[in-house]
Specification:
13% strand; Rossmann fold; disordered C terminus; single chain; binds adenosine-5'-triphosphate; 23 helices; binds magnesium ion
């Protein structure tokens, strides 16, 4: 819903005499402005209640006693005989766990609807309606300023400083356009704050101050504490060994968020789900793709959503998704999505919280029009709800398997390069053989993170050796082979889990690699363009 649709919807609800409407927003001032305009069109006066001033009409306190919530509701019965719009600003805290207040408010809402030409409206930053009022209250989310509104806010602010002797102000259309594009998704006050900060810090407002507006967005993310900004500068797609099918898919979509793609008729990519064996590069891929696409990577911590530390889990999810839209274009990384959603089947023991959180996420995924790309990962498919896999949620579901021979070769090469050693000094073929089925037996191979660990440990051994005797050689292939022989691969200890995962993947996912499950064989994977087209009985030889 954009800003215009929101105003139209709100006006409709007021005209239709809904008993009580709750507008969820942090932007009280902006909401009040909208309400005053609507009330003006409907010839109603606006009476505002706040916890500090009580009932206020045209800037005047109506009665000092009305700071008391119950007294205020009783007074509103009388005042409501004249066409009025009552706006209750801090009321959500007075209604929660306070049955007398909730009852008084309910009676008022019903009386206003049935006998008076008036309406009651709550403005609240959170949707926290007590159960006894849920039938009375209709909830409407106020959208943040869209591009048009952001442009107006920026334009008004910038114009106010044009001609100021000590400031360098650029009010050209290009400058306003760049600042507004960066500001879109922020609340009005936040846009104005970021512009004011630019004036104080740089004595300027121009295209160059876009970074300060974007900094404001990072602040908001940090304050909310639900999403985490993940630094990705050190990563790029070349850091991923193998997974070529996935990499090609991602590479093709790199430009799909541009205006040129939009003009061509291309829709924003929605997202991918990576399911797979632990330690094979799912999280790594999230970081690499964000870096390659030059988009911020926001990690959604499912644990925090449900922690109860910051508000209700459902409200947390809504805040997290709103925040993502604020910084869009962005990548929303939902790591181990199954952990948050595992209880979403009916009969869960958390009072339905995970069902509601899951519902919020699914609806958002279905309806979102913003350039937020979802990068979800999972390594346990047992609890993945089927709704998540349905058409329209993800553009593709990829299965990340144990690395093939070729892929292990690439991963060893990456790890050796990461150690700043010359590849020519190592026998990659030997490492590939030592880390695969010819060494461990059928179906057993090292994962990417195990390869990383053996190279790291071998380096440590070599360092220790040299520290004892400086004349001995640097790390060599044999050091890595020695380390490999010391570990029990995860694919050995968890072979039945892996088998199950592969069976599931054969029917539900596309392979992230181009190469085969078994060492030594190669098979081209034909990428299916959509989840719904992933066929059962694909030609995969497990
Ligand atoms: N395909 C790969 N290419 C290069 N490095 C890899 C690859 N797979 C794993 N690694 C190394 O192993 C580390 C751990 O991998 P990552 O965290 O991406 O695994 P994961 O699939 O997300 O595992 P989990 O399911 O346990 O979260 C990476 O940081 C990287 O160093
Ligand atoms: Mg991971």
């Amino acid at each position: 819903m954009n800003a215009d649709e929101f105003v139209a919807e709100l006006e409709n609800l007021i005209r239709a005499r809904y008993a009580a409407i709750c507008v969820t927003t942090f932007e009280e001032e902006r909401c009040l402005l909208i309400l005053r305009n609507i009330a003006g069109r409907l010839n109603k006066r606006v009476i505002i209640w706040t916890a500090t001033k009580g009932l206020v009409l045209d800037g005047k306190n109506l009665d000092a006693k009305s700071v008391d919530f119950r007294t205020a509701t009783l007074m509103a019965f009388e005042l409501g005989r004249e066409p009025s719009l009552f706006v209750w600003c801090d009321a959500h805290t007075y209604l929660k766990n306070q049955p007398v207040n909730a009852r008084a408010f309910k009676e008022l809402c019903q009386a206003l609807r049935d006998g008076c030409p008036s309406n009651s409206l709550l403005i609240s930053p959170v949707m926290d309606i007590p159960i006894e009022l849920q039938k009375e209250v209709t909830v409407l989310d106020m959208p943040l300023p869209d591009m048009g509104e952001a442009r107006r806010i920026v334009d008004t602010f910038v114009s106010g400083y044009v001609g100021h002797a000590e400031l360098s102000i650029d009010n050209s259309q290009e400058a306003i356009e760049s600042l507004s594009a960066a500001a879109v998704g922020l609340a009005q006050e936040e846009i104005e704050n970021s512009l004011a900060k630019s004036l104080v810090k740089r004595r300027a407002l121009s295209r160059n101050e876009v970074d300060l507006v974007l900094e404001e967005k990072k602040q908001i993310i940090r304050k909310a504490g639900i999403l985490e900004y993940i630094p990705t500068e050190k990563f790029d797609l070349s850091k991923i060994g193998g997974l070529h099918n996935l990499k090609n898919w991602l590479e093709k979509r790199k430009g799909a968020f541009s205006q040129a793609a939009r003009n061509f008729g291309v829709e924003y990519p929605r997202g991918v789900l990576l399911v797979g064996i632990p330690g094979c590069g799912k999280s790594l891929s999230a970081k690499c793709v964000a870096s390659a696409w030059k988009m911020p990577l926001l990690k959604l911590d499912m644990g925090r959503i449900f922690s109860g530390i910051v508000g209700s889990s459902e409200a947390n999810m809504r805040i997290a998704l709103n925040l993502c839209e604020t910084v869009a274009p962005a990548i929303l990384w939902i790591d181990e999505i199954e952990k948050g959603l595992s209880g979403s089947d009916s009969g869960s023991s958390d009072g339905g919280a995970s069902t509601r959180v899951f519902g919020t996420l699914l609806t958002w995924m279905q309806e979102k029009t913003n350039p937020v790309f979802i990068f979800a990962t999972a390594n346990n498919i047992l609890n993945l709800p089927p709704e998540l896999l349905r058409k329209g949620r993800f553009d593709e579901i990829f299965f990340v398997d144990l690395p093939s021979e070729e892929e292990r070769g690439e991963i060893f090469s990456i790890m050796i390069k990461n150690c700043k050693r010359e590849l020519d000094n190592f026998d990659i073929e030997r490492l590939v053989a030592a880390s695969g089925e010819s060494e461990f037996g059928e179906g057993i191979r090292l994962t990417g993170s195990e390869i990383e660990a053996v190279v790291r440990d071998a380096l440590l051994e070599a360092y220790y050796r040299k520290s004892v005797n400086p004349d001995v050689c640097d790390i060599i292939t044999q050091d890595i082979v020695n380390e490999i022989s010391k570990i029990v691969p995860l694919s050995k200890s968890r072979s039945s889990d892996i088998k199950h995962l592969r069976e599931w993947a054969a029917e539900n996912a596309v392979r992230a690699s181009l190469s085969t499950i078994s060492d030594g064989q190669r098979m081209e994977e034909t990428s299916k363009s959509h989840v719904s087209e992933v066929s059962v009985g694909r030609n995969i030889d497990f």
